[in-house]
Design goal:
It is a single chain. This protein is an alpha+beta fold. The protein is 48% helix and 15% strand. It contains 12 helices and 10 strands. It has helices at residues 10-13, 29-46, 50-54, 60-70, 89-98, 103-116, 118-123, 126-138, 251-285, 299-330, 340-349, 352-377; strands at 143-146, 162-165, 171-182, 189-196, 200-207, 213-215, 229-240, 244-245, 289-290, 293-294. Strands 1, 2, 3, 4, 5, 6, 7 and 8 form an 8-stranded mixed β-sheet that branches. A hairpin with a 3-residue loop joins strand 4 and strand 5. Helix 5 crosses helix 9 (251-285) and helix 9 runs antiparallel to helix 10. The longest helix has 35 residues, at 251-285.
Length: 387
C-alpha cells in the first residue's frame, strides 16, 4: 500500500504521522518540469496580453488555450489511450497552480481541463472518449459544464431542464436554461444535466452546433472579466442517445464527483494566485516610502506579510497533501478492471470532505491575501494600472 493512502476523513479519527503526508518536497523532477512549463507559458504568452484578455478580444482566449494544448498543458487528466498523458492529481494540481498569474486565463483553462473534460474522461463510453478526448487534449475542442440553472445553484438536483426520448428512440429532446456557464461563449462541447421525463437526473454530451442549443450574451462580471460566462438555452435540442453520460438517473454522481476534483484544482489555482499577489505586494512594499522609510520596514506591514505567507503555506500544504492522498488511493485500483473508472471515482469520492475544505479554505485565503496586498498598495491598489 502507498504510504500516503490514509483514507478519507482520517484526520478526524487518528493522528497522521509525518511520513504519511505528501508535501511539495516530494515533487518529482518530472512534476516540477510541468510546473515550470506552465509558469513560463503564462509569463511569456499570457500576461503580456492581459489587457486584451480582460477586454475579451475576440478569439484570443481560445487561441491561448490552444497554445497551452500544444505544450501538453491540457493533457494531464486525459488517459494515454485517448491522446493524453494520464498524469496523477499532484501533477494536474501543479499545472493548475502555475497558470494562475492571469486569473481569467486560469478560469478558462482549468474550466476546460477540469469540469469541462472530466465528465467524459470518467463517465463517457469508449466511443464518446474516442470522439472527443484526443481533440480536447490538444485544445482543438474546448469544453464547458452546464449544471447551474436560475433556480438551481447549490441545490443542483432542483434543476428543471428536461429530456424526453423521441418516439423512434434515437434522440433525447432537451429543454431548459443553464446559467453562469464558464467557457460557454466559445466552447465546442457541453456537458449538460437534465431530468429524463422530469425525474431521472442524467448527464449528456451536447455539441455546440446541435440544433436548438443557443448561447446567451456574455455576463458583465465584477471580476474575471476576460473569462466567458453566459447562459445556455436549450429549445428542443436533439441529442443522440449515444451521448448519454454514465447511467440514466445517476447524473448526480457525475455532477458531484467531477466537482470534487474541480474543488481540488480550485484550491491549487487560488493558492498560485495568492503567491503571485504576495510577490507583487512585497515588491511594492520594498519600493514605496512613507515618513522617509520603506513601508516594508514598518512592523504592521511585516506582520501582514508574515500572516499572508503563513496562510499560503497552509493552503499549499492542504492542496498537495490531499492530491497525494487521492493519488495513493487510486493507485490501488486495477487499471485492467472493467470497473476501473467506477472504482477510481469511488476512491475520489472518499475525499469529498477534504475537497470541499480545499475550495473553501484556499479561496477564503486568497480573498484575505488580496485584501491585504491592496492595503500595501494604498490608493494605487484601487487603480487598474496596478496589479
Amino acid at each position: 500500500m502507498n504510504k500516503y493512502d490514509v483514507g478519507g476523513g482520517a484526520f478526524l479519527k487518528r493522528g497522521i504521522l509525518p511520513d504519511e503526508v505528501f508535501t511539495p518536497e516530494d515533487f518529482t523532477p518530472e512534476q516540477l518540469s510541468f510546473a515550470e512549463t506552465a509558469r513560463n507559458f503564462v509569463k511569456k504568452e499570457v500576461l503580456p496580453l492581459s489587457g486584451d484578455i480582460e477586454a475579451k478580444k475576440p478569439g484570443l482566449m481560445r487561441s491561448l488555450i490552444e497554445k497551452a494544448g500544444g505544450l501538453g498543458l491540457l493533457m494531464a487528466d486525459v488517459p494515454e489511450e485517448y491522446g493524453g498523458l494520464g498524469l496523477n492529481k499532484v501533477s494536474s494540481a501543479l499545472i493548475a497552480e502555475n497558470v494562475s498569474a492571469q486569473a481569467s486565463f486560469m478560469t478558462a483553462m482549468n474550466g476546460h481541463t477540469g469540469i469541462g473534460s472530466l465528465p467524459i474522461i470518467f463517465y463517457g463510453s469508449d466511443e464518446l472518449k474516442r470522439r472527443y478526448l484526443p481533440a480536447m487534449a490538444t485544445g482543438k475542442l474546448l469544453g464547458c459544464y452546464a449544471l447551474t440553472e436560475p433556480g438551481a445553484g447549490s441545490d443542483a438536483l432542483a434543476a428543471k431542464t428536461k429530456a424526453v426520448l423521441t418516439p423512434d428512440g434515437r434522440h433525447y429532446v432537451l429543454n431548459g436554461t443553464k446559467q453562469f456557464i464558464t467557457n460557454a461563449g466559445f466552447a465546442d462541447v457541453f456537458t449538460v444535466f437534465a431530468k429524463i421525463d422530469g425525474e431521472k437526473f442524467t448527464g449528456f454530451v451536447v455539441d455546440r452546433n446541435t440544433p436548438g442549443l443557443k448561447v446567451g450574451p456574455e455576463e458583465s462580471k465584477l471580476g474575471l472579466k476576460g473569462s466567458s460566462t453566459t447562459t445556455v438555452i436549450l429549445e428542443d435540442a436533439l441529442v443522440p442517445v449515444e451521448n448519454v453520460l454514465g447511467e440514466i438517473g445517476k447524473g448526480h454522481k457525475i455532477a458531484f464527483n467531477v466537482l470534487n476534483i474541480g474543488r481540488l484544482k480550485l484550491g491549487a489555482g487560488v493558492t498560485g494566485a495568492a503567491k503571485v499577489a504576495l510577490a507583487d505586494g512585497i515588491k511594492y512594499a520594498n519600493q514605496r516610502k512613507q515618513f522617509g522609510k520603506l513601508i516594508s520596514s514598518f512592523g504592521a506591514i511585516k506582520e501582514k506579510i508574515a500572516d499572508m505567507t503563513a496562510a499560503i503555506f497552509a493552503s499549499e500544504a492542504l492542496v498537495y497533501r490531499l492530491a497525494g492522498m487521492i493519488d495513493a488511493r487510486v493507485e490501488t485500483v486495477d487499471r485492467g478492471s472493467p470497473d476501473y473508472y467506477k472504482l477510481y471515482q469511488k476512491g475520489i469520492e472518499e475525499y469529498a470532505i477534504e475537497c470541499a475544505i480545499s475550495k473553501v479554505f484556499c479561496s477564503e485565503m486568497l480573498a484575505g491575501v488580496v485584501s491585504d496586498v491592496l492595503q500595501l498598495y494604498g490608493g494605487y491598489g484601487y487603480i487598474q494600472d496596478y496589479p
